[in-house]
Amino acid sequence: MSKRAVVMIVGSMLLIWYIISSSLHISKDVASETHQEQSTLYQVKMKEKYVALTFDDGPHPVYTRKVIKVLNKYEAKGTFFVTGERAHRFSSIIKEMSEQGHEIGNHTFSHPSMRKITSSALQEEIQKTDDTLHSLTGEYPVCFRPPGGVLNETVIDAAKKKHHIVVLWSRHQDTRDWSNPGVEKIVRQVTSHTQPGQIILMHDSGVNRAQTVKALGKILELLSKQGYKFVTVSDLIHQGVKEGGRGYTSSVWQN
C-alpha cells in the first residue's frame, strides 16, 4: 500500500470518528472540543526518531529556495503549507518542491481570517488551492493547515467535506520565527523540546526570513547528531502506522 493511501485511510478514519461523535448526546461544548481534537493532527505517536519540519505562508521567491537548499544539504524533507495565490505566482518553486520530494500542503488560497469565514467560503478556498497545486504537480494535497492555526467548527467542517487532514503542530514547537526573535532563540525552542513524532512550525515567507534559514541549518545539524531524521507529514503518519500496526486513531494520533 502506498504512503498516500495510508494517509488517506487514516484521514478517513478521523472523519468517520467526527461523524459518529457528532451524533452522541453530549454537551455542545464537550462535543466541539472532542471533534476538534479528534479531527486534528498535532503529533504522531512513535518511538523512532522522526520529526516533520513544516513551513507556512509561502512560497517566497527568495527564502523558500534558501530553506529548500538547507533541507537538501542535510537530506531532510519538509512540508510546505502554501497559499494558492502565492503558488500560482511562484509556480516554478512549487514544481521544484515537488520534484525534490518535499510535501506540499494546503494553506487556503488567500489566507483569510478563519474566525470570519463561512464553511462554504472556506471550502472554495481549499478547492481552489487544491486545483492550483494539482495543475502544477499532478497531485492533490491531503493535509490542510488553517491560517493562524485557528481551529473551530468551521475549519473542521470544511476540511472534512474536502477530505483533508487538519495538521497543526506539537506542543512547544511553535518557533514564532515570524517575529524574528533571534536565531538562537528559534534553535533553543525547537531543540530543547524535540521528541519523536513531533511536528515543528516555521515560516518560509514574510518580510525577512533570514533568521529562519540560519536557525534551520543549526537545528538540522544538532538534531541529526542526536539521531533524528526529517520527513514529510505524510511520511510521519506512515511511520506511525508502521509502528502502531493497527488502531490508527489510538496508536498514531496524540494531542
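The record above closes out task 2.4. Task 2.5 opens with a second protein, given below.
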Amino acid sequence: MKRSMYYTWAFSFSFKMAELRNRSAFFEFAIEDKFIAGMVLTGTEIKSIRGNRVSFNDSFCYFSKGELYVKSLHIAEYAFGTHANHDPLRERKLLLTKRELRKLENKIKERGYSIIPLRIFMTDKGYAKMEIGLGKGKKLHDKRDSIKQREADRELRRNYKDL
C-alpha cells in the first residue's frame, strides 16, 4: 500500500521549463501566421533543451521531399553524454499535419515568405514542441517603426508605473 502511494507521488511531479524564444525573429520578420510543430529529437537533445541550451541564431525551416526541416538550430551537446551524443547543428524534422504542410508549402512559393522558428517549449506530457511562424522579411524602415513602437510602449509603462 505504501509503495503505490510513493509511486503516485513520484510521478505526479510536474516539470516546468521556461520557454525558449527567438527574440530576433519578431524584429527581422513580420509574422503573419503561426503553427505548433512536433520535433524529432534524440535523448541527449531533449536533455539539452530541458537545460535551456538552445540557440536560434540564423535558424530557418525548409521543405525537402514534402517534409519540413529546421536547419542551423544549435542544441548544445549534453554535458553527461557519451559517444552517442548528438551533432549540435544537425537538421531536425518537424511534424505537422498534411493540411498545414500544404498550406506552408504554397505560401513559401510566393515571393518573400519564410518559415522561422519562434520558440521551443515543453508540453505537460514532456514533449518538446516548436512554434514556427510564416512571415515576410522587414525592410529597414519597418524595423525603425518597430523600435519607435517599442520605445513608446516602454514610455507608457513608465508613466503608468509612476501613478
